[in-house]
Design brief:
Pfam families: CN_hydrolase (PF00795). It comes from Urochloa decumbens. It is a single chain. The protein has 354 residues and is of the alpha+beta class. The protein is 26% helix and 25% strand. The two termini are 41 Å apart.
Length: 354
C-alpha cells in the first residue's frame, strides 16, 4: 500500500559562519516593574556580550510577572512599533553585533494577546517572530493539580499557528516556547528543516519542573539523532506514515537544545512558582551549561563539530528504516502543492495563448 502523501525532501542547513560560538542563557528575576525588568535585562545581555557570547537567549515572559490576571496589561504592540522590550533588544543586538532569541513577551495584536518570541539579528532587525503555538488550545499550557496549582493559559492568550525556523549569523535555529517542548514532533520538524539548535524560552513551574524539565530537554536533543516512529502524532505540522516500499530519503542529524527560564522569586505571592534551571544540552543529552533556580547568567559553547562526531560514534541515520516510516512536513507539503498548482496553471495559460 503506497503512502497517502509524500513530504518534500528535508532541508539542508546553510553553511554556518562559525563552527563554535558561546551561548548565554539569561535567567532573570522578574518584578512587577517593567522598566526595571528591561533595565536588568539590558545589563545582563551587555555583560554576556562582553564575556564573548554571540547568541543570547532570554526567558519566557521576562518583562512582567507570569500571571494570567495581569498579562494583558503588560502586552506590547510589536508590529506597531510600541514595544519597549523589543526596542531594547534591537538596540543592544545592533550595538554589540550579537543575535538574541528574545525569550517571550505578551504581544497585543488584532485585539488578542499572544505569547511571542522575537529573534533579533546582529543589525538589530527582527529576523523572526514566533507565537506560542495553539490550535483549539493545543500547546497553550493548562494544568490542574488539586491542592497544588491550576492555570489555563488559553483563558488569556491566543495560540500562534506557525512553527518557526530562522537563519541567523550563528546558524539555523528552531523556536519553541515552554509547553512546545513537550511535543517531540515539533522538534523533529525543525530538525528536518535544517536547524542545529532549538531554543525554548520557558517558565516551567516547580510541580512539573522537578518531574519533567531535565528529561524534556535531554529528550528533545537525543530523540532527534534519528527519525523515530510515534504511534500518536500531531497533524497540524506533520504526520508519520507507514509505508511498504521506497528508498530511505532522510538523514537525521543531532540537535543542541537551549532553554531559558525566569529566576525563581521566593517572595512571590503567586501560586505559580518558577522552576528555573535554564540549560544548554548537547547532542548526546549532555549538560553543557546549567543554572540553578536563582538569578544567573550561564554560558556554554555550541560546537558544530560535535554533531558530526556524534553521527560517527552513533550512526543511527544508517539504521533508520526509511522503507517503513517517514516524516511528512504538512506545511511544506501544502506549499509545494500550491506552487505546483500555480506552475501548472501558468503553463496551461501559456499553451492556450492567454
Amino acid at each position: 500500500m503506497a503512502p497517502t502523501s509524500v513530504s518534500p525532501p528535508p532541508l539542508r542547513p546553510p553553511k554556518a559562519n562559525t563552527q563554535k560560538y558561546k551561548v548565554a542563557l539569561c535567567q532573570l528575576l522578574v518584578s512587577a516593574d517593567k522598566e526595571e525588568n528591561i533595565a536588568r535585562a539590558r545589563s545582563r545581555i551587555e555583560a554576556a556580550a562582553d564575556a564573548g557570547a554571540m547568541l543570547i537567549v532570554m526567558p519566557e515572559i521576562w518583562c512582567c510577572p507570569y500571571s494570567m490576571d495581569t498579562l494583558p496589561s503588560y502586552a506590547e504592540d510589536i508590529d506597531g512599533g510600541a514595544s519597549p522590550s523589543i526596542s531594547m533588544l534591537s538596540e543592544v543586538a545592533a550595538a554589540r553585533k550579537i543575535t538574541i532569541v528574545g525569550g517571550s513577551i505578551p504581544e497585543k495584536a488584532s485585539g488578542k494577546v499572544f505569547n511571542t518570541c522575537c529573534v533579533i539579528g546582529t543589525d538589530g532587525q527582527i529576523l523572526a517572530k514566533h507565537r506560542k503555538i495553539g490550535r483549539f488550545q493545543l500547546h497553550l499550557f493548562e494544568i490542574d493539580i488539586p491542592g497544588d496549582i491550576k492555570l489555563n493559559e488559553s483563558d488569556t492568550s491566543t495560540g500562534g499557528q506557525e512553527p518557526t525556523v530562522v537563519d541567523t549569523d550563528v546558524g539555523r535555529i528552531g523556536i519553541g516556547i515552554c509547553h512546545d517542548i513537550r511535543f517531540p514532533e515539533l522538534a523533529m520538524l525543525y530538525r528536518s528543516r535544517g536547524a542545529h539548535l532549538i531554543c525554548y524560552p520557558s517558565a516551567f513551574n516547580i510541580s512539573t519542573g522537578e518531574l519533567l524539565w531535565d528529561l524534556m530537554q535531554k529528550s528533545r536533543a537525543v530523540d532527534n539523532q534519528v527519525l523515530k516512529f510515534f504511534l500518536q502524532h500531531r497533524t497540524f505540522v506533520m504526520k508519520l506514515h507507514v509505508i511498504q516500499r521506497s528508498r530511505p530519503e532522510f538523514s537525521w542529524f543531532q540537535l543542541f537544545v537551549a532553554t531559558c527560564s525566569p529566576a525563581r522569586d521566593p517572595n512571590t505571592k503567586s501560586e505559580y512558582m518558577i522552576w528555573g534551571h535554564s540549560s544548554l544540552i548537547g547532542p548526546f543529552g549532555e549538560v553543557l551549561a546549567a543554572a540553578r533556580h536563582e538569578e544567573a547568567t550561564v554560558m556554554g559553547e555550541v560546537d558544530l563539530s560535535m554533531i558530526q562526531s556524534t553521527r560517527e560514534n552513533l550512526p543511527l541515520e544508517m539504521q533508520s528504516r526509511g522503507d517503513l516510516y517517514r516524516l511528512v512536513d504538512v506545511q511544506r507539503q501544502r506549499e509545494t502543492a500550491s506552487n505546483g498548482a500555480r506552475a501548472r496553471g501558468s503553463g496551461e495559460r501559456r499553451r492556450s495563448g492567454q
